Each structure stands twice: as structure tokens, then as C-alpha cells.
Amino acid sequence: MVDVKKLLIDTLTDEFGYPVFLQGSLSDYDAYPEAFFTYWNNETNDDAFYSNAESWTVWNFDLNFYANDPVLVNSALLDAKLALKAVGFIPSGSGYDVISDEITHTGRGLNLIYIQRTER
Amino acid sequence: MARMSIIFDGFADLAREIDKVGGTKHLKTAVDDALLATQKLVQDQVTQASAPYAKKGLKGYAHGDMVKAMVDDHTVTWIGDIAEVRVGFDLQQKGGFHSIFIMYGTPRMDADKKVYNAIKGSAVREQIAKLQEETLRKYLKLGD
Q1: Which H or E element spans position B43?
Q2: B107, B111, B116 member nearest A26 (Cβ)
Q3: Which of B61, B99, B106, B124 is most worth mutating to test chain A (most A CB atoms within 10 A of its CB)?
Q4: What's the order of all strands across the beta sheet hosting B77-79?
Q5: pLDDT tens-digit profile of A4-59?
Q6: ipTM, two decimals
Q7: Which value, to the nearest 10 degrees, does the dihedral of the CA atoms of residues B125, A96, B93, B113 take?
Q8: How many CB pairs below 8 A link A and B?
Q9: Residue B64 gets which letter from DSSP?
């Protein structure tokens, strides 16, 4: 069975080379990298029950991209959207602004779904 | 602030039936009723999820004003055939903006998904769809 979090992180790392962090995992002492992704798993629900056994699991993620270059912030998230779509993620829309702790950086976010078949 | 409209599958068919029973005005009343019930459901959950933030200083970015900035506007807005109610927090009010920090987090602060899920979670969306259908079905017959 696909390790969905690993698929997300590996796809972003392999395609773009920027660091990938769990949202909220940088400490107050960590300097922001020039550009980086963060992710958060909002919920993971079993769906389509049949004979009391789930048929698939729906993973819901927020993906964010932060950088000190506002043009890159817009373009990188849209490129990530295409790369993740190619490996089976379902992006919702084209993103929204997210807040950064540092005035040097801006961010964009995107909601993603991944539908994972349950092997029985 | 988020906007909520009618989301359940099969609304178009049910709307046609309600329109047949009592006409456009009757249908509009039914949709208004369903959306106000939706707003109450969501805002009750938002109130519960955001209660800890009434206290100053929790989670760094919230300073107590976020809770006071919850949407308190019970108006259904119609633009053509689309009807909506406001839910969540009023970003124009003092403290309303903190809800964005809380719901989505930042690289240095994790998100609080209780507040997020109260508005956007799949469980609340299922509850909304059920409530909307139940509310609208009451309008399949005319009142006394």
C-alpha cells in the first residue's frame, strides 16, 4: 500500500529540491530557508463502507509554500500542484494566501486529497 | 470568514418539488430557513472549538479578540439564484484575522484543526448536508 505522506514528501523533494517540513515544526530559533514547503494532514477518513469494511481511505492535506520571492511563491505552488496531480493527488483550486511568521516571506497554500484503495 | 450555501446532492430535484408546492417565494423561504439552520450548526461548533482562545496568550497569535470576532450576522444573501450565509470569523473585526493563524498554522506554529474542522471538516459537511435536506423537506407541504 502507498505511504501517502512519503509520496507527498518524496514528490516535492525530488521535483523541486526545496526542504519539506511539517507545518509548525520550525522552532523560534530556526531561520526560515529561502524557500520551502510545509504540509499538514487535516484528516484521514475511511469511506465507501461495504460489508463493514472500508474500501478506501481519503487523505486530506494542506500544502503550503513559503519564500522570500513573491513571484516564486505563486509559481512554485502551481508547479507543485501539477507534479502532485501526476502522482495521484487531487488538488482543490489554485491556492490561497497563508501567513508567515517572518516579514521577509510570503506563502501560498493548497488543499489536496489523496484517495487510497484499501487492500483486503 | 467563510460562506456556506446549499451543498447536499439532490437539491435541484427537491427545489423543483418545493417550487411546485408553493412557488418561488415558498422555495426562497425554505432555502433561507435551511441556510440559517446551517449557520447555527456551524457557529455552535465554531464557538465550542474556539472557546480556549477567549483566554489571552494561548497559541501565541490569539489574544482573546478572535472569539469576539465570530460572525454574528444572520442574513441570507441572494445573488441571482445563489444564496449564502456567512460563517466563521469576521476578518474585518479586531482579532478576526487571528483565526487564519489558528486554522492554518504557520511554519513555527501548528494548526488547530478543531477550529478548521468546525467550518471545513468532512464531518461537519455531512451534518450540514443532512440538516439542509431535512429542513427543506419540511417545505414539501404548505403550512397551515
Answers
A1: helix B11-50
A2: B107
A3: B106
A4: B2-4, B82-87, B77-79
A5: 999 999 999 999 999 999 999 999 898 999 999 999 999 898 776 666 666 888 99
A6: 0.84
A7: 50
A8: 60
A9: S
